[in-house]
Model the fold of this input.
Amino acid sequence: HTVDTPLGKKTSVDQSSCNLDSSCLEGDCPSFMTVAVQAGSPDKGTATSPTGDDLPDPTPLTDTDIFDLRLAGIGGTGVVTAAQLLGTAAMLDGVDVRGLDQTGLSQKAGPVVSDLRLSRSTEMSSNLLGRGEADVILAFDLLVAADYRALAGATKEHTVVVASTTSTPTGAMVGHPESEGPSVVELIARLDDNTRAGSNRFVDAGSITLGLLGSSEQANVFILGVAVQAGLIPVTPAALERAITLNGVAVDANLAAFRWGRAWTLDPERVEASTSPTSTGRTLMELPELPDSLRAAVSSQIGDTVLTGVIEALAADLVGYQDRKCAADFVETVGFVCAAEQQVAPGSTRLTEAMARGLHKLTAYKDEYEVARLLSGSDSRALIEAVGGQGAKATWHLHPPLLQALGVGRKLRIPSNLGRPVMALLRLGRHLRGTPIDPFGRTRVRRLERMMLGEYQLAIATVVDSLSAENLDEAVNMATSAMAVRGFEDLKLQRGKVFLEDLRRYLAGATN
Done:
């Protein structure tokens, strides 16, 4: 999944939705880490789960003989499982159940809709909900639930939505991190416009279950708890708990999530206050301290703007990546662009930010020295413990481009406790980066990285010399194009070639 950081969008492995086939270990990534999880880890939160006896029985809000329910979410997150749990619970309560899972071609990260029809006495002719027939929509994912196909079953008069506001990347978003869908606010508004807005309930189920249980895998069951306790689904809590037990998968965690969902319906503030802020399982690299001289340089060249914090973060990263001189050169170039932009568009910072992010990305490419810095730092140890618990052991799966160029097709497996001293030593070799004696600098990808940086710096100088209010948008597009150079090895070579071709066309047009 992509994560927004001060350095831009970064890729993070979401342990809650990770595939179990370990195919990622064979991917074309030069550095990969596996963690041996210790018993009882990671931290499952500090709050004590409520028991069934602590929670009052819900008051059913519907007395209709036929009850129609639609569940909508992302494939691979347990939408069909949630439907099966509800169906089993209803049958245990003596209710006739009909269901239809509409998975299409989706197995993971695609839209999934499941319909359930419950009846105590009337014989049902179909297991598919008709237009406007849904009494309740359980929205495990807002994007899927707000789609016109899922909303076809809703009406403003009687359909109620219980939704998780946790964002789950679709398959397209995973493959293209730069793509953005509608905001949570927009999706909620779309659901409210088509259902009983005053009765709808929205909760960040993923974050709450992550904070309470150490994993967001039980988010859908949490939503079931919310809906059942609110009296929106005609099944008893005891029957649903029995269905969870019969399912036999992560029984204790799912029972806890269901009960926490019921408790949230009764007292949202208390439940949210019980979540552990340290249970996120995600640690971002701490940036080095920016020297006062560089901080002053940023302030004098950029001014006191919102952009100042971004430039300081990027410069601080370059101090750790290479040295102060590298960061100082970066700040000087960004200041050069900022001054030119203010002359043609006072108050605008679009070009300056785009240039700064593009220049930083092309400067701080992840070579062997940078991978060594990331793996040997204290934040790497913190990340290992966040995933696997105190004292957890990790194994690095490394495939340096140099070894690949020499015909070594398999990754090296190195225990982190043995490899950390070697990585700390390799990190010191960053001063050889880009020099004639750099032992890693002759591979195709390293030569390409240096070429892209050099031509981008030339493009910056060309842009500044010819910048005007009329070509500002074109300059911003050129500057932003550097962010598309992502990936490793063959993928980076392909995208880098496209980037250079586009950059050269821009320069040819700018100089004519």
Notes: The longest strand covers residues 66-74. Residues 278-283 have pLDDT under 50 and may be disordered. The CA atoms of residues 448 and 497 lie 8 Å apart. The first helix runs from residue 79 to 92.
